Amino acid sequence: MTAAPQPTAAGPDQPAGAAEPVRPPAGTAGAEGTGAAAGPDGDDPRLLVDGVEVARYRVAPRLDARHGPRPYLHPVRTRAGTVVTDALPADHVWHLGASLAVQDVDGTNLWGGRTYVRDVGYTWRADHGRIAHTEWLHRSPRRLAHRLEWRDPAGAVLLAERRAIAVAALPGHPDAWRLDLDYTLTAPPGRDVPLGSPATNGRPGGAGYGGFFWRAVADRPPAVFTATGQGEAAVNGSAEPWLALRAEAGGAAYTLVFTGLGPGDRWFVRAEMYPGVCVAFAFDRPCVVPAGAGRAGRHRVAVADGALDRDAAAALAAALDPERP
């Protein structure tokens, strides 16, 4: 593989010292070039709330392998039509709307971009796999369910997944709707599958990303907050029951409220370099999917028009998880 030029900019996917977007080195792109989705998308399911499209699910995007091909939601919109996800952005072209993605799945990069190597830093490697749709179980405008495989670069199955995505109105909150993501990752019999992150592979600075990642869109750095903390430094790595991102996109204000951390999960949050929130599976230590066993996740997101304060965000979080104390 052609060695990548030394980067000049820093970000959560980049070593310290950077100001340029980090793209694959010249000559390494696949048949689809720099990574823009190729081919018709007419078969991508559209999710509707009260008859209005709020999200599109890109099931099998044809992307450069180094962008970590995987199903993703984009565009996701508020009820008023404001787009609140970004995909293939110039700063990190492997960020794909809202998706499941992990940088280290037993040595395979299923996040995209460069891989963080202990004592070396970010490096372009031929270690990119893909998360592939294999079978629909249910498909309607309000709910999708399907089977997927998390594959290594040679196509061998690392994890089998069953995933469900649902959308619905939020009673009592006419300017918001809810997205529900439920999944189970199952390891093959006889083989534990470790999940890691740049942080668990030696990168300092709270770069424990990988899990359910939402790349947002914002005209300027967003506000990020929980019930007790405010700002990126305070909430990154926290384990609060809910987390909110408040931003403007094209001059229109919106707020996202996330819930659903599992045991050992943490919030990975970026606001200054780019707007993003991740339910991080391996924020500061690896986690393992035991042989033949499953790792289940249940995440809820409220997508709301308007710039909500802490009390209003807490009310949305309560509506998402009414049984939470």
Describe this structure in words.
- The structure is a single chain.
- The protein is mainly β.
- It has a single domain, classed as Distorted Sandwich (Beta-galactosidase, Chain A, domain 5), CATH 2.70.98.
- The chain has two helices and 20 strands.
- The radius of gyration is 18 Å and the shape is globular.
- The N terminus is likely disordered.
What's the layout of helices and strands?
Elements: E1 46-49, E2 52-58, E3 72-76, E4 98-105, E5 108-110, E6 115-117, E7 121-123, E8 130-139, E9 143-151, E10 157-169, E11 176-186, E12 193-196, E13 211-215, E14 223-225, H1 232-235, E15 242-249, E16 252-259, E17 266-270, E18 276-280, E19 287-289, E20 294-305, H2 310-320
Antiparallel strand pairs: 1-2, 2-3, 4-5, 4-12, 4-13, 6-7, 8-9, 9-10, 10-11, 11-20, 12-19, 13-18, 14-15, 15-16, 16-20, 17-18
Helical amount: under 10%
Query: What is the count of distinct domains?
Result: 1
* Main structural class: mainly beta
> Beta-sheet strand percentage?
35-45%
Whole-number average pLDDT? 89
Count of helical segments?
A: 2
- In N-to-C order, the SSE pattern is EEEEEEEEEEEEEEHEEEEEEH
Number of DSSP strands? 20
Radius of gyration: 18 Å
CATH topology: Beta-galactosidase, Chain A, domain 5
Regarding CATH, which class?
Answer: Mainly Beta
Low-confidence stretches: 1-23, 25-40
3D shape: globular
CA-CA gap between termini? 52 Å
- Main beta-sheet annotation: 8 strands, antiparallel
Which architecture per CATH? Answer: Distorted Sandwich
Strand order, main sheet: write it out: 8-9-10-11-20-16-15-14
